[in-house]
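FYI - complex with adenosine-5'-triphosphate, inputs then prediction.
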Amino acid sequence: MINSLESSEVIIKEIISKIEKSSWDSITCQETVKGLLKVMDDLADFRDIGDHLYDGIYITDGEGKTLYVNKAYTRITGIRPEEVVGQYVDDLVAKGVYLNAVTPEVIKSKKRVNAMGESLRNGTKMLITGSPVFDAEGNVKKVVTIDREITDLLKMKSDLEASQRKIQAVKTDKAKSIMEAEHLRKSQLKKTLIGSSIEIQKVMMQIQQVADLDVTVLITGETGSGKEVVANEIYLNSNRKKRPYIKVNCAAIPLNLLEAELFGYAKGAFTGATSSGKMGLFELADKGTILLDEIGDMPLELQSKLLRVIQHKEVTRVGGTKPIALDVRILSSTNCDLKNLVKQGRFREDLYYRLNVFPIHIPPLRSRIEDIEPLAKHFLDIYNTKYARNTIIDIPGFEMLHKYLWPGNIRELQNIIERLVIIAEQKGNVSNEQLGALLNLNPSYLAQPSLEKAGLKDIVNTVEKKAIEEALALYGSTRKAAKVLMVDQSTIVKKAKRLGIVLKDEKTHQA
Ligand SMILES: Nc1ncnc2c1ncn2[C@@H]1O[C@H](COP(=O)(O)OP(=O)(O)OP(=O)(O)O)[C@@H](O)[C@H]1O
């Protein structure tokens, strides 16, 4: 028995042939045969429809005996009709054709049952839905099970998951690139603020810490040490960077004008005042940042007014009565010892604390000599480009720069490098004589060994070493250096060896 539908057809054909051979009158006979042929037709149609369905159909009777499977079922499971039709599902499970089956469960529960399955033959994954068909008494007379292949669906799902993972990866990449951009932004900071010493790295870290916070910052350091550069970096890295940035040098504006410059004046405030009045620098800096450079030079009366601006976040113009609300971030800088000024009664203590919420101190260049070489190279790049030169400083040259005390700090280094580039030959090294001559303009600023830190032997060694290095740097050879220092050339060579002076190019020195 291939399929119970086909067997029904066989039975009907047999009945027809029996009817035709029977003694029934021809009209009854014809009618019955016509009816049976119609049933056969319907059965054929049913089989056709079943075979054209994309999902697998598995029909059993109420006992679980397999009546019909369509072509799609064979396609999906690899099980042919002749293997299962006429057999009970329980037996097929026992034989190992199926691992488990929904039909017995449907018969038992009289309810629709859903399950996921996998063909043991070809591994196809299926969504299986078995539904009961009831007779008039409510007994299960058939179970129709639909097997829907979901391998494609699962593949689609895994493809979807893969693309979701890709999208996630892109999102993560985007987050990563944002982080990288941030990192780049921070490293840009290092590019403007040249230096590799621990001291300057600490300053860079402090800038990063405070830039985005709206607190007041007091930047201290000797003249030319980079206070304005640090203030600029704070502004550029803050969330006010697209807002105004006003710099005021409190020492450069005549005292009688400073108040009106800073706070503005109302119309008719004084003779000569414009009729409409004038905005002060604080008002111009509204929503942005103001840098009060040389804050130590601000007169006491103005200090009180500045304190009010900070405390009440408003300014009253000179000669005015109406306060104007302000939102300004205040950075200030000084090379004075403000604390000392406070002690002397020249700077208001309350203002000092208001300005000094976050202090940044820039150490002088002489105490961070690791920064001299990168800074000098940075300025060489700038001025070589500006003057179309190719000036290089060699190792003895840098050694000279290291020994200098740099009272004018980085500004002085910058000026010296610019002058070097200007006076150097069109190409090549700057001569050490030229460099020495420039630095010797301030001989008292050449570093001396400190008596407290060194013993006599060390002091003698340091002085000897310095003298030999300088003579070598200035005169270029051990012979000339020996002559200048009034000793034998062999003494210079021996001492150089003992003192760790590298005679970089013996040939050059002995020429
Ligand atoms: N770390 C640095 N990297 C690169 N250039 C720097 C650095 N520090 C300072 N400079 C340069 O040195 C010069 C002096 O710096 P700046 O004007 O910021 O010093 P300052 O402390 O504000 O001086 P002053 O107290 O005289 O106002 C400027 O040309 C500045 O660009």
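The longest strand covers residues 125-134. The longest helix spans residues 151-192.
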